[in-house]
TrEMBL record, chain A:
This is Carbohydrate ABC transporter substrate-binding protein. It comes from Virgibacillus halodenitrificans (Bacillus halodenitrificans). Keywords: Signal. PROSITE patterns: PROKAR_LIPOPROTEIN. Residues 24-43 are annotated as: Disordered. Residues 1-23 form the signal peptide.
UniProtKB/TrEMBL annotation, chain B:
Residues 69-285 form the ABC transmembrane type-1 domain. GO terms for biological process: transmembrane transport. Belongs to the binding-protein-dependent transport system permease family. Its main location: membrane. This is ABC transporter permease. InterPro entries: ABC_transporter_permease (IPR051393), MetI-like (IPR000515), MetI-like_sf (IPR035906). It comes from Virgibacillus halodenitrificans (Bacillus halodenitrificans). It is a multi-pass membrane protein.
Length: 450, 296
């Protein structure tokens, strides 16, 4: 009996010691964090966490070197990973936050969204007023128009910028230009012309349409919503306005997607997963499908892939709904931001302002990443210029994303709007059901908006 | 007395490291999961809000959760049933029949188990490829056009495609387990049975099956645990839960909610349900398959 007591007491004691040891660790790191705050004159170590995307990690090292050359008391430490979320999440949960993040929204792990939802992202509106380091221009004058007043940069819709735009890329419908020349086809201006072309192509055994994965519809559907109802309508949809999906503007967008299902290459849905999505992109390269929604990154992504003879990339804005109607090309961009828990916020803001300098933009451009700043299009090579000059050829720019809300369990607007597209294309879900489901989730998210 | 006391202290000191590790890395995190399921929390900030059982109430009306639950249960049942039949058949074949290349087959069957699940996902997305895939090509050869399917695209069969891959990788492992217990059954039983005129099937059902029953019971629990875990990995790597959530299993749904939807507390509530469900299922299965252990 005694033995049992002793055992119990001892294990309880160990547990207490172990637990207090754990919490003790937390305390000390907190103290350290407080202590290091505000030491401006001494050397600051700026911890930058960046996603390693198609552009590679080297450009960041070069940018850091250039930055350190002019800011001698700043040392930059990087965490550059393809699976950045998985690497930094545990560190952040232990209380150690990077100072600067280059991590876009709409990624599967949604780390950026989580911090936005938790109001744990620093307001960057003052960065826009700062001078670009080493230059005379103010940041907001240098950034291209429209980039800092979308829901993708001002997630709470209150006019304050929390995420700064980086590396932009126009998106649209990608196709094989030489195939169109060879067959004498015109790139359709309206959806009606699109269906006509679809019938013509079908006779030749070519499908009109394919898509890599349903998530790529965020840009296509965005452009369609813009084209159907204009920017205000788009913003109403993105802020979950009641019954917005019941309007005829929204309805014709959803109906068009449903009709697109009839013209979609039969293999598409089977390959629309993270493992096989390149097989869908391959369909366009091999002239088995005419169009796919994509961004200019696809050129590098499929660089090594075999293709039809004489293949040449072309990109068209999304067709209009009526003759002479507006056509949009959605602009995709990544975001750079500072978590509220960062230690060196001032240094971080200076670093972000530096991202818009010509010096940094040139380094990024070398790796293929295009900064959204004035005059960048002139510096692009010919291949890239074709894509980036889409707006000069009559297409309107479209930007934005769904407004941030408090987290609502079981309600994901992107699953409902984009995820369901697989079912709509395969014919399992009708556009009416789709519309109803989106309305339902919108109803749940509306009261949770900040 | 003091001798006994000293002995007790010695025992305590000896087992305390294991107990501490067990508590720290098993008990505490499990309790933590249960505790977090009562909160509304995004995962980072200090604004945790205690919401009691609200997260669980939401679960009942969450179509996504119900779909993932159905998929998981279907996978557990299918994978366990099909694997057990094949594994027992091959195990009996390889132990009882003197086939040529016995060992060779044993290795071949076991190989899928060594492969990483991501490799298996790669293999099967090649097998299921709509155009050049093994399955559709075979149907092509035999002109069975009607059998050709979008194995990963047709929402009503894609979950069976996932089950197929899981069965393929599980057979070898369970076969080896059954083989080891079949091998320890004395050959004299079979000799006696065949002298009495019992056929192969009768021998299997009356001798082999009862004598390895305990082993089968243990593996039933393994089927439950491993299907829950492996289906998550396979689905993540092969279908991404798609098309449109039709291969979502409960761990992948939990992951999507805890991280993708920034509702960490809700994800933990799903974790609690999975925890209780797998425990309860294993207990029920173990209870209803309970037989007297035969000694030999």
């Amino acid at each position: 009996m005694k033995m049992k007591h002793l055992l119990f007491a001892l294990s309880a004691l160990f547990l207490v010691i172990a637990l207090s040891a754990c919490s003790g660790g937390d305390d000390s790191s907190d103290n350290k964090a407080n202590g290091e705050n505000g030491d401006k004159d001494e050397e600051t170590t700026l911890h930058v966490a960046a996603l390693e995307s198609a552009y590679g990690a080297d450009m960041w090292k070069k940018v850091a070197e250039a930055y350190e050359a002019t800011n001698e008391n700043v040392k930059i430490e990087f965490t550059i990973e393809k699976n950045l979320e998985e690497v930094v999440r545990p560190e952040m949960q232990a209380g150690s936050y990077p100072d600067v993040f280059l991590l876009a929204t709409d990624r599967e792990e949604a780390l950026t969204e989580t911090l936005i939802k938790e109001k744990a992202v620093e307001n960057l509106s003052d960065v826009l007023e700062m001078k670009v380091p080493g230059e005379e221009a103010v940041v907001k004058d240098k950034i291209l128009d429209g980039f800092t007043d979308t829901l993708a940069t001002n997630p709470y819709g209150d006019g304050e910028t929390y995420l700064a735009p980086m590396f932009y890329s126009p998106t649209g419908l990608f196709y094989n230009e030489s195939l169109f020349e060879e067959k004498g086809w015109e790139v359709p201006q309206t959806w009606d012309e699109m269906w006509e072309l679809g019938d013509k192509a079908k006779e030749e055994g070519i499908s009109l349409f394919t898509y890599p994965i349903a998530g790529y519809f965020d840009t296509l559907l965005g452009s369609m919503l813009y084209a159907s109802g204009g920017p205000d309508f788009y913003n109403s949809a993105m802020t979950y306005e009641d019954n917005i999906w019941e309007t005829k503007e929204a309805e014709r967008v959803l109906k068009t997607v449903e009709k697109l299902g009839e013209y979609t290459h039969p293999n598409t849905v089977a390959n629309a997963n993270p493992n096989d999505f390149t097989k869908n992109q391959q369909l366009v390269l091999e002239n088995k499908a005419l169009f796919m929604p994509n961004g200019s990154w696809v050129v590098d992504e499929m660089k090594e892939a075999p293709r039809a003879d004489g293949f040449e990339w072309g990109m068209a804005p999304v067709p209009a709904f009526e003759e002479g109607g507006d056509r949009y090309a959605f602009t995709f961009f990544e975001q750079i931001w500072i978590p509220s828990a960062a230690e060196n916020k001032d240094a971080a803001k200076d670093f972000i302002a530096y991202m818009y300098s010509d010096e940094a933009a040139d380094i990024f451009l070398e790796a293929g990443a295009v900064q959204p700043i004035e005059g960048i299009v002139e510096k692009l090579n010919d291949q890239k210029k074709i894509f980036y000059s889409v707006y000069e050829n009559g297409a309107l720019p479209a930007m934005g994303t769904f407004a941030s809300t408090e987290p609502v369990p079981g309600a994901s607007i992107s699953d409902e709007v984009y995820g369901t597209i697989d079912s709509v294309i395969s014919g399992k879900t009708t556009y009416e059901q789709w519309k109803k489901d989106i309305e339902e989730v919108s109803d749940k998210l509306r009261p949770a908006m900040k | 007395m003091s001798n006994k006391k000293a002995r007790n202290i010695f025992i305590t000191v000896c087992i305390s490291p294991a107990i501490i590790l067990f508590i720290l890395f098993m008990v505490v995190p499990t309790v933590e999961v249960f505790r977090m399921s009562m909160y509304s929390w995004g995962g980072f900030s200090n604004t945790k809000e205690f919401v009691g059982f609200d997260n669980f109430k939401v679960l009942w009306n969450d179509a996504g959760f119900i779909q993932s639950f159905q998929n998981s249960v279907l996978l557990i049942v299918l994978v366990a049933m099909i694997t057990i039949v094949f594994a027992l058949f091959f195990a009996a074949l390889l132990t009882k029949e003197n086939l040529k290349g016995n060992n060779f087959f044993r290795i071949i069957f076991y190989i899928p188990n060594i492969l990483s699940i991501v490799v298996i996902a790669g293999i099967f997305s090649a097998v299921y490829d709509p155009e050049s895939g093994l399955l559709n090509s075979v149907f092509d050869i035999f002109s069975l056009e009607s059998m050709k399917q979008m194995w990963l695209g047709n929402q009503s069969i894609v979950i069976y495609s996932v089950a197929g891959a899981l069965v393929w990788q599980a057979i070898g492992y369970y076969m080896v387990m059954y083989m080891s217990s079949m091998a320890s059954i004395p050959a004299s039983y079979y000799e006696a049975a065949s002298l009495e005129g019992a056929g192969k099937l009768k021998q299997f059902t009356s001798i082999t099956l009862p004598l390895i029953w305990n082993n089968i019971r243990t593996t039933l629990t393994f089927y439950i645990i491993s299907t829950i875990n492996l289906s998550f990995l396979l689905v993540k790597a092969m279908t991404g839960g798609g098309p449109d959530g039709s291969t979502e299993v409960f761990l992948s749904y939990m992951y999507a909610q805890a991280y993708g939807n920034s509702t960490y507390g809700y994800g933990m509530a799903i974790g609690v349900v999975v925890f209780l469900f797998s425990f309860a299922l294993a207990a029920i299965v173990s209870h209803i398959t309970k037989r007297d252990v035969l000694e030999y």
